[in-house]
Amino acid sequence: MSDTGSTAIDPDDAVAADAAAREFVARHSDDDVRISPSGDEIGRALVVVVDDRAAHGEDQSLLGPLVGELLGEAGFHVDATVAVSGVEVEIRNALNTAVIGGVDLVVSVGGVGVGARDVTPEATEQVLDRRLRGIEEAVRSSGLAAGATDGGLSRGLAGISGQTLVVNLANSRAAVRDGMATVAPLAQHVIEAISEF
Questions:
Q1: Which of 9-23, 71-85, 107-121, 165-179 shows the lowest per-residue confidence on average (mean pLDDT)?
Q2: At residue 158, what are phi and psi to the nearest 5 degrees?
Q3: Engineering a disulfide at 76: which of 17, 65, 71, 168 sits with its beta carbon 3.0 to 4.6 angstroms away?
Q4: Cβ burial 157-168 (10 Å sphere, 16+ → b, else e)
Q5: What's the CA gap between 76 and 43, in Å, rounded?
Q6: Do 159 and 166 meet the contact criterion of CB atoms below 8 Å apart?
């Protein structure tokens, strides 16, 4: 097949990537991802909550602290949790600020559905240098398998911006818990790989 510049993914590749990601996650226990081989924290992380009410102080979502707690358990130092409204430029600015600030991992929560205000993937795509579709599909597949429908139907992206891994998750407790269980062990290896450059 000739390369026409299309970004369509071969369904067989998506199935193979999903199977590889599941096998990898199954092989690594939580203890394997808490601390790097040197005994240090894996890296710095930042959480971006995309929620209009939380951004205006009306509803302090518990999802930001939950993501922070799960990141801490996985061996990350969480620099901060920030809330932004579901406006593309605000989301993009928050992600760019994290990347410029040198964090190793940015996890955004929310804005990945099919509603008119769900623009996190569009904002994220503008920030990424390289997509990691295997992680995206692993999060969706794992979400569906775990019964986190919003996680399974998420349009969320994952990829690298500079030397920062960026991951979008859906905004339910089930999607966050399942998404973090899938992302954490993969994130350690991505961060180690990109820090070698």
A1: 9-23
A2: -140, 145
A3: 71
A4: bbbbbebbbbbb
A5: 5
A6: yes
Token pair listed for 33:
């991802």
- CB-based contact 99:122 (threshold 8 Å): no
* CA separation for the pair 184, 24 (Å, rounded): 11
What value does the mean pLDDT take over residues 58-77?
84
Bridge-based pairing state of the strands 158-161 and 105-109? unpaired
Q: What is the pLDDT of residue 51?
A: 87
Contact predicate 68/60, CB 8 Å: no
In whole angstroms, how far apart are CA 62 and each of 54, 183, 194?
A: 10, 20, 31
Is the per-residue pLDDT at 20 higher than 60? Answer: no
pLDDT digits (tens, 9 = 90+) for 104-127: 999 999 999 998 889 999 999 999
Tokens found for residue 189: 């290896």
Instruction: Decide: helix, strand or coil at residue 164.
Output: strand
pLDDT for 197 equals 58
